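quick one, two chains, predict together pls
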Amino acid sequence: MQLDPSGEGIAIDETRRLIASNKVEGTPVFNRAGEQLGTVYNFMVDKITGQVAYAVMSFGGFLGLGESYHPLPWRALTYDTRLGGYVVDIDKDRLADSPRHTAGEDPFVDDEYGAKVDAYYRTTPTS
Amino acid sequence: MQLDPSGEGIAIDETRRLIASNKVEGTPVFNRAGEQLGTVYNFMVDKITGQVAYAVMSFGGFLGLGESYHPLPWRALTYDTRLGGYVVDIDKDRLADSPRHTAGEDPFVDDEYGAKVDAYYRTTPTS
């Protein structure tokens, strides 16, 4: 495995399993056709079990403004090492209508929000 | 559950289970005597399984300089809702000698580093 020649120590080998929680931002998210839908903004992690429950995807927006945040249940995602990102089985129209929030909102403070997301993607909760 | 009156949407109810991956920094880490050892810098997350493998704790330093980063195996941690942070069963001397790195280093690029950490804390790997 090689270190990034810039010396910042960023691994460029995609077979590396571990990712730092403060580096997940920007991981691409694709649909099954391989089209990029957006990028990961952050993970919502269960602080008791240490299991990621949702990957919050940033979608839309222009020049850093107006993007919306769409949580994706972890169980709806598959990491694709070839693509170097996550694949979710959803089309763009259905994604646009999914539960979402904007910067500055903190909807997970309401336990019902996760349940809404799970119901929309028809997955059972991770925890 | 109340929102932070500042309107930034930060939940102040400690029974909330989910934490955003970009907000884990600063979570306190205590020993069994309830003494604070340091704070979490980030989590190392298995990108395939979504399970946190290590919480990297920031320890030592002064005025933001010289701190070292000590990965703690997830299995060695217990979240304590009363303390509002993680408890690890280790004393300060043993912690000071544990596998560690400094800012700018990326030792997890080497698969052996995680194994060293697990061996030091005598835990079996999470994955």
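Residues 51 and 82 of chain B are 24 Å apart (CA to CA).
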